[in-house]
Write a structure and sequence with these properties.
- The protein is 15% helix and 27% strand.
- The two termini are 40 Å apart.
- A hairpin with a 3-residue loop joins β4 and β5.
- The N terminus is likely disordered.
- By secondary structure, the chain is an alpha+beta fold.
Length: 306
């Protein structure tokens, strides 16, 4: 439903209950009015819902002028609106923990099952919206992402003027991230060792796969504790491919406990919170680009041994 509003000189709708307005650029001029356009552009939202939003003045142009059902649809317009869900969200019964906050950054310990940002059937039950509603930080934006299934340390920026400096740390790969995972034993390897492979998006929705070719993913793997047939691994990703750690351990014959995607994607568990993925973003370290100080943040969470 369009892109979520980020850093803009002027945003004509306020943050509402932690939800920032979204916007859409119109790429062509169409007849039939705004209501018809919205109903056809977003078929998952009912026509009656759009009519009600237009009546309430919740769809506006770039100047903040409320649009009507019969307003013209012109190429080059930018319209703003709130993303809404037609069905009530299931509360996610796990809470985030704030580890650190200053004038530029917010460091958060994310729980399992909580999505980072609004997507699909998740809106208010996302880390970004929860934090915006709690802290009233309208410009809060994640600098990097964790999967919904993964818990641990994540960095947010809440000051527009310095956001780019912190984003550049990840682009330059100068951020040190350490993860922990519980999985079965990896046979035939002397620890620590580095695993490399070429990864790409798979034909199956949302998962990755390994293919022949020059490696584009790299993970240093340590085994730090063993209890029976379960090993606690410390993982140091040197690249940041989607699902890299999950796919690497699965390819080594040791899929992470409770992984619903690897080695085989299982049916969606919906709102079943009984078996969290045993993957944790344990720590993150970097040299602050503003002060030069060395910063390290650690998750306060633990993995669940079976």
């Amino acid at each position: 439903m369009g892109r979520q509003a980020e850093a803009n000189a002027y945003i004509p709708l306020p943050v509402r209950d932690g939800v920032a307005p979204s916007y859409l650029w119109l790429t062509e001029t169409l007849a039939g009015g705004m209501l018809r356009f919205l109903a056809e552009r977003f078929p998952d939202v009912t026509r009656d819902s759009w009519a009600a939003r237009l009546e309430r003045g919740e769809v506006v142009d770039a100047a903040g002028v409320p649009l009507k059902a019969d307003s013209h649809v012109r190429q080059g317009m930018r319209i703003w609106y709130y993303r809404e869900l037609d069905e009530a969200e299931t509360p996610i019964p796990f809470k985030e923990r704030i580890l650190f906050q200053d004038d530029h950054l917010l460091i958060v310990d994310k729980p399992h099952f909580l999505p980072m940002i609004p997507t699909g059937r998740f809106l208010h039950e996302t880390l970004l919206v929860r934090l915006k509603a709690q802290l009233e930080l309208p410009h809060l934006t994640p600098i990097h992402r964790l999967d919904r299934e993964t818990a641990g340390v994540v960095i947010f920026s809440h000051k527009l003027e310095t956001r780019g400096k912190y984003q550049s740390m990840f682009q330059k790969r100068v951020v040190k991230k350490v993860y922990e995972a519980l999985a079965g034993p990896i046979e035939g390897r002397a620890f620590p060792f580095t695993y490399r492979s070429r990864m790409q998006d798979a034909a199956q929705f949302f998962v990755s796969e390994e293919v022949p070719g020059e490696p584009n993913s790299e993970t240093l793997i340590e085994a730090v504790e063993r209890r029976g047939d379960i090993v606690r691994y410390r993982l140091h990703p040197h690249t940041g491919r989607k699902h890299q750690l999950r796919l690497h351990l699965s390819s080594l014959g040791a899929p992470i406990l409770n992984d619903a995607f690897y080695p085989v994607a299982l049916p969606c568990k919906g709102d079943d919170f009984s078996a969290p993925l045993q993957l944790l973003a344990r720590s993150i370290s970097f040299e602050d680009p503003l002060t030069g100080a060395q910063r390290t943040f650690h998750s306060e969470r633990t993995l669940d041994w079976p």
